[in-house]
Amino acid sequence: MNMFIDLTKRNIKLYLRDKSTVFFSLISSIIIIALFILFLGKAYINNTVELFSEFGEIDRTSLQALIFSWILAGIIVLNSISIPQMMLSRIILDKEAKITNDFYVIPFNRNILGLSYIASALFVGTLITYLSFLIGEAYIFMISGQLFSLYTHLLVLGIILLCTTSFSSLMYLIYLFVKTSSTIGGLTAFTSSIGGFLAGIYISIGGLMGTTKDIISSNPLAHATALVRSVLMDSQIESVFKGIPSEVVKSFSDGMGVNLYVGSTQLTNLHYIIVLLVVTLICSSVSYFKLSNDKLN
């Protein structure tokens, strides 16, 4: 146990010591916030006001808070994968420096080393992602005076832990097959760019059609984002669109990707949770067998 704790502390300290690594872990969130401030937020707000204009005037500050909650959900999910991704890049750096081989000659279960990488990614990923949620909530409070309930905080924290666990196990498995540190930059760029589309942040999944919509709606990133959105936005949607026909409000939720569909089947929060748990189970199992059979390089 002492070895596990010491290795976990080592990984956390090495990550926090490198300021550039911490910055690039958050680059996706920075890009999304910049896009929201520059044009995405205003475009979504204006489109929504126009969509519901026949039902009367909508309070723009409450609507702005709602749209930012939609954006915030995406930020939470991308942080829950990008931060563990950069944390777990320590695996490759240790391999290149032959530090892994030094660990393997010590008489201890090599799975402890793998668990230390994942534990450090879970701790830092959950902590920073939750802090980003608190910062987002502070912004929402400044523009609308609204705060999320304690119950919402607990739900969000639980979802963050679930997402961080699932995506940490996925990234850990990927990094077990990566040999050189030059690959880290490519994986980071992929997560920053493609991850935003798969999560339904840069474009709304509800606006897609046919097979493309079904494929994107089926990926774990979209499920995680929809799960967070349902927690953050449900009560706000009821408040902002009070008095507007439910079918019209549902159409808005569908269009914004708050509700996901595969074919004609609407997915539920239970679907999202099961998918994230299955990803964790499969990736953890494959990683265990891969690590157990690893040979020294």
Structure report:
This protein has 297 residues and is mainly α. The protein has helices at 2-17, 19-25, 27-51, 60-88, 90-96, 99-104, 110-144, 150-176, 182-198, 210-217, 220-240, 246-255, 269-292; strands at 261-262, 265-266. β1 (261-262) and β2 form a beta hairpin. α2 (19-25) crosses α4 (60-88), α7 runs antiparallel to α8 and α8 (150-176) runs parallel beside α13. The protein is elongated. 38% of the residues are buried.
What's the SSE blueprint?
Blueprint: H1 2-17, H2 19-25, H3 27-51, H4 60-88, H5 90-96, H6 99-104, H7 110-144, H8 150-176, H9 182-198, H10 210-217, H11 220-240, H12 246-255, E1 261-262, E2 265-266, H13 269-292
Antiparallel strand pairs: 1-2
For the largest beta-sheet, the strand count, sense and barrel status come to: 2 strands, antiparallel
- Ends apart, CA distance between termini: 26 Å
Helix content: over 70%
Report the order of strands and helices: HHHHHHHHHHHHEEH
**Which word captures the global form?**
elongated
Adjacency order of strands in the biggest sheet: 1-2
**Structural class given helices, strands, pairing?**
mainly alpha
Rg, alpha carbons: 21 Å
Question: What is the average of the pLDDT values?
Answer: 85
Give the total of beta strands. Answer: 2
**What fraction strand?**
under 5%
